[in-house]
Write a structure and sequence with these properties.
By secondary structure, this protein is mainly alpha-helical. 82% of the residues lie in helices and 0% in strands. The chain is built from 8 helices and no strands. Helix 1 packs parallel to helix 8, helix 3 crosses helix 8 and helix 5 runs antiparallel to helix 8. GO terms for molecular function: pectinesterase inhibitor activity. Keywords: Signal. This is Pectinesterase inhibitor domain-containing protein.
Length: 203
């Protein structure tokens, strides 16, 4: 019964992700037209690779971000950590899925290691941002460099997981579900890196 329920969830997941993204994008566009903080987020997201995803993932936090570049980066990192943690939990459960072929299990296990590394690096990045002192201070550049390096490494981890599912004879539903989640993690992480780089260039 549990296996049947998981299989059904795997089938629905890609469609639910598309629907949810569309709903959030519409709501974000409406908010940006009337809210200065939402407008700031929308303008800032233009510097990212996936601006629509950026707006969708950050607009909910407009009241927290306001018009603060640093808070914008912190929120983007927090979103990335949350998405990566959720995906790690999901992938971890799949390692216990019955009927996996050896190659399927190996690919899922490798992905679990990569997304776990991504969570760790993104968490370190968020902590490093909190340590940033006054711009131009003696340790400011060092902390900022660590921040950019770790977010970049996390993005590489996400890509490595996705690459592991290319050209393998894997269960179609499992492959599609993992790729959908990891693609979203990679997109919000890429956006977080772009916002980090923009922040570093400005300050």
């Amino acid at each position: 019964m549990a296996t049947s329920s998981l299989t059904f969830s795997l089938i629905l997941l890609p469609f639910l992700l598309v629907l949810t993204t569309s709903q959030f994008s519409t709501a974000a566009a409406t908010a940006a037209a009337t809210n200065p903080a939402a407008s700031f987020i929308r303008t800032s997201c233009r510097a990212t690779t996936y601006p629509a995803v950026c707006v969708q993932s950050l607009s909910t936090y407009a009241s927290v971000i306001q018009k603060s570049p640093k808070q914008l980066v912190m929120t983007a990192l927090s979103v990335s950590v949350d998405r990566a943690q959720s995906t790690r939990t999901f992938v971890s459960k799949l390692t216990k899925f019955r009927g996996l072929k050896p190659r399927e299990y190996a690919a899922i296990k490798d992905c679990l290691e990569e997304v776990s590394d991504s969570v760790d690096r993104l968490s370190k990045s968020a902590k490093e941002l909190k340590r940033l002192g006054r711009a131009g201070g003696p340790e400011y550049t060092w902390h900022l460099s660590n921040l950019q390096t770790w977010v970049s490494a996390a993005l590489t981890d996400d890509g490595t997981c996705l690459d592991g599912f290319s050209g393998r004879a894997l269960n179609g539903r499992i492959k599609t579900s993992i790729r959908a989640r990891m693609t979203n993690v990679a997109q919000v992480t890429s956006n977080a890196l772009a916002l980090c780089n923009k922040y570093a260039g400005k300050y």
